[in-house]
Amino acid sequence: MGRLSGRxxxxxxxxxxxxxxxARRLCAEGxxxxxxxxxxxxxxxxxxxxxxxxxxxxxxxxxxxxPDSIAKLIADTLAHYGKLEVVFNNGAATQSEFxxxxxxxxxxxxxxxxxTFAVNTRGTMLMIKHALPALIASGSGAIINTSSGAxxxxxxxxxxxxxxxxxxxxxxxxVAAQYGKQxxxxxxxxxxxxxxxxxxxxxxxxxxxVERHHLTPELGYPEDIAAMVALLASEDGRFVSGQIMRVxxxxxxxxxxxxxxxxxxxxxxxxxxxxxx
Amino acid sequence: xxFSIRSHLPSGGVEAGGFAANLGRAIAxxxxxxxxxxxxxxxxxxxxxxxDTMKRLEGKVAVISGTxxxxxxxxARRLAAEGxxxxxADIDLAGAEATAQAVRDAGGDAMVHYLDLAEEASIAxxxxxxxxxxxxxxxxFNNAADTRAETMIRDAAIEFMDADLWxxVFRINTRGTMLMIKHVLPHMVRQGGGSIINTSSGAxxxxxxxxxxxxxxxxxxxxxxxxVAAQYGKKxxxxxVVSPGLxxxxxxxxxxGHNLDMYLSHHLTPRLGRPEDLAAMVALLASDDGKFIxxxxxxxxxxxxxxxxxxxETRGGVDAYKPTAPEEHANG
Lengths: 277, 332
Known about the structure:
The complex is a heterodimer of chains A (277) and B (332). In chain A, 49% of the residues lie in helices and 13% in strands. Chain A has helices at residues 17-28, 40-52, 67-81, 96-99, 110-138, 159-179, 197-202, 204-211, 222-233, 258-272, and strands spanning 8-12, 32-37, 56-61, 86-89, 142-146, 185-191, 244-247. By secondary structure, chain B is α/β, with parallel strands linked by helices. Chain B has helices at residues 18-36, 70-81, 93-105, 120-134, 149-154, 163-191, 212-232, 260-266, 275-286; strands spanning 61-65, 85-90, 109-114, 139-142, 194-199, 237-244, 297-300. A seven-stranded parallel beta sheet of chain B has the order 3-2-1-4-5-6-7, with helices on both faces. The chains are: A alpha/beta (277), B alpha/beta (332). Chains A and B meet through α6, α9, β7 and α10 of A and α7, α9 and β7 of B.
């Protein structure tokens, strides 16, 4: 009996990197998982794979920009499993051609801004709104929202994305304050750089540049995020609420100059103390 | 905000007059209500003990300070259940031995060693003994602090702060934690990695009235954590803090801690904390599940530090809040 035994979970963006790793993890720990995505085909393929390995998963379509689609996702989940304990709001407007149009504030395309907020912020809010009755009824609901390091520190592009994720952080605090006493925890996870396999292979210089600013030897993997979601979704996370959890290799927690000073630091340590050792 | 008094006291040293007895009654009362509230929101799960334990720490060695009760003891049981060999350090050897016996009874591997965090020699001896026995240290959980009732009671108004008391608190909590890390680091660097977890406190994140020395000493641990992560992260060493909310233990004691219901009203969860809540987060951070997490201050605090202070008063709606006037103005 795993930590997610008897718990029904929805993972939005379930066919993507973080979403699919988390769906697998929640199933591996005994959960029943609805893999919800705007791309139904890969979601169905993942659900079939999980079922073939003995897990319990189904795929459902959701368009987070469409309020009716969100309401239908919750209704269909309840129709299939009869209950709902965990919602992982991980879906966002991250199609690369779309993100490339999200630049600096001075050149912001209002359509990009509005669509970003409609999917990332309003979509997350509506998922929570429609799921809350079932989460409260379960007596032990857990909401986990995917935020971003971009919501915490300034950067040069993807302004709309960052602002929409900052709004998700505030939403997280408010849901935790409003529904905590009814047994619903609400937390956000702020991932550091978790490159796709393609990006690792095709952009080695970019990867190296970003990696040196993380405090871990390596950048993240989707499984790193999935592990924290599993804790927050289970009894292990019952006393954790209102947090913006940074699973980010410490990239948001050290000064920007650390990477540039590291060689100097090591040389200083070596010349001052190492000869004594 | 947890106070495991025995972590820095000879056993049974908490008898500060009627204080402990009153507190004991308050905790027993809260516990009874929590038990009756099994059907309350958020309390539905089977006990931690009733599910299969993950084995994320097989072959790892964990040194834990402050293990005679509370968070330290629960974490020792959890890490051992997940497969780690545990080194239980405490100034209260009998208390640590009792925890070790519980670990062994459950099939785990534990050794006990004396630790006085005020003395570097004692810290060095602990780490040497752990290495002598196991040859490696993968996890360091710096959980012990000076939480003696006699310290806590005098740690209040800054205008009356006894500088010796201040120094003593920093010597044990901050300097002791730094020295534990100092002595473990060479082994973790040699091994190519490790995970250090420090216990901080909600008191390190916000202003409060009592325990200013304790809170300041814990805030220093927060930034120490970020420095350890920055300096040694690329060598595979992660360093994080867990910051507890109000965690109810047999040994819990605060200067103002009798009113658990008042504290509960300011947490966002249906219940107060349990040592097992902290143990679960420490287990994640200690294992490969936490390998992309470093330099973080992670509150396991029922959300007490995440909302405006007026939330509890306004829960019934702002209009429902009726302040109790300190005095009625007859001429008003």
